[in-house]
Each structure stands twice: as structure tokens, then as C-alpha cells.
């Protein structure tokens, strides 16, 4: 190989290393996002519905109750949480 080819290869390799070093602080691992609540069950009676969820990360059960108004629209949702023993 000629001297100029070696020099160009060396310059290209050095430039690639510089670019990688400069880009490294901006490289981030992707966060693994998964649902934290596991649905357990649902129940409905009249205009009231209840859904139960389990949070494995904290060992907590969450119950959410929604009430529908006469027109079928939700009038509110209330949730309570309790840690399992």
C-alpha cells in the first residue's frame, strides 16, 4: 500500500473514534416499558362498575369503581389501593 492510503485510513479511523467519543454521552439504553398493573377482574351492577388490578412491583391491589349517570356518561371514578400481606 502507498503511504497516502495508510494516512487516509489512519485519519478516517481517528475521525471515527472522535465521532464515537463525542456521541457516547448522548447514547442511552432504551427503557423497558411494560404495563405495571395486571388486570384481575371486573364486576358491574346497575350503574356501577368495579375493576381490580394487581401491581406486582409493589404487591398492591387496586380497586377502581366508576358510576354512570342516567345518560350513560361517567360521573366519576374512585380508586383505592391496599398492600397485600
Describe the protein's architecture and organization:
The protein is α+β, with helices and mostly antiparallel strands and 85 residues long. It is 25% helix and 41% strand. The protein is built from one helix and four strands, in the order αββββ. The chain has one helix spanning 3-23; strands spanning 38-45, 48-55, 60-68, 74-83. The protein has a four-stranded antiparallel sheet, with no helix packed on it.
SSE order and pairing:
Elements: H1 3-23, E1 38-45, E2 48-55, E3 60-68, E4 74-83
Antiparallel strand pairs: 1-2, 2-3, 3-4
Please summarize what this structure is.
With 85 residues, the chain is α+β, with helices and mostly antiparallel strands. Helix content is 25%, strand content 41%.
Low-confidence stretches: none
Question: What are the secondary-structure elements, in order, as H or E?
Answer: HEEEE
Using only C-alpha atoms, the radius of gyration works out to 29 Å
How many beta strands in the DSSP annotation?
A: 4
H/I helix tally: 1
Mean pLDDT figure: 83
Strand content: 35-45%
For the biggest β-sheet, the strand order reads 1-2-3-4
Largest sheet: 4 strands, antiparallel
Helix content: 10-25%
Amino acid at each position: 500500500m502507498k503511504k497516502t492510503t495508510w494516512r487516509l485510513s489512519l485519519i478516517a479511523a481517528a475521525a471515527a473514534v472522535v465521532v464515537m467519543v463525542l456521541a457516547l454521552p448522548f447514547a442511552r439504553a432504551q427503557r423497558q416499558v411494560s404495563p405495571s398493573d395486571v388486570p384481575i377482574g371486573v364486576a358491574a351492577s346497575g350503574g356501577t362498575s368495579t375493576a381490580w388490578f394487581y401491581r406486582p412491583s409493589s404487591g398492591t391491589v387496586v380497586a377502581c369503581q366508576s358510576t354512570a349517570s342516567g345518560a350513560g356518561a361517567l360521573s366519576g371514578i374512585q380508586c383505592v389501593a391496599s398492600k397485600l400481606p
